[in-house]
Amino acid sequence: MKIAVAGGTGQAGRYAVEALRARGHDVVVMSRGAGVDLVTGAGLDAALAGAEALVDASNVTSARRKTVAAFFDAAGRHLADAAARAGVRHLVALSIVGIDRVKNPYYAGKLHQEEIVRRGAVPWTILRATQFHEFAGQTLAQLPGPLALMPKAPVQPVAARDVGEALADLVTGEPQGMAPELAGPQVESLVDMARRLMAAGGARKRPVLPVHMPGGMSSGGLLPTGPGPRGTLSFAAWLAEHHPATPA
Question: How many Å separate Cα 148 from the centre of its chain?
Fold first, then answer.
């Protein structure tokens, strides 16, 4: 089967590509380096020619509300329209657990992306996954200064590889609408994850000050609300794998 993967060089997308190729599928990686621009739509028709299925694991790194909103609106519309023109039979979009409960500009953009997929002409599946194990490090990188004002939040982090495998499973099956939420094997404290990451040498060491976040994040809004698949790699195991010099 010919399958296109938008965001195929990203955290989860590259693992979806790896899993699909290991299963013998013809995979097209859609990226700017390959001449595909999701924001303008350039290169989409050529990349999707002959594709039976599409994975959308695209992402934007900005935290600015206008930038995030503009990206997910343009990328979502261009992908949905191009997939319909190409006769794609199944569109699988990667989303995030809790975006309908936690107030955040990025999550608002993802909700809009989901709505575009739902309204589109291509049969679809949306997979909401919890934060990746890299989330603590990504959050720390956005916090300047001698103190890290880390949000108090329970999270259930999942390995990006597990998410990529799940995307590969879904896109080769039948469209199912909202798939069961995917989460990691256990609940963690984001503050504790940050401290353990620093101790393992994975981030600059500095005091971590827990901060209550309004909008649902600190009250468990990022946790799955029902049964669903669970990844097998814990944060401790991920930490030991990526920063083995210091025990997790």
Answer: 24
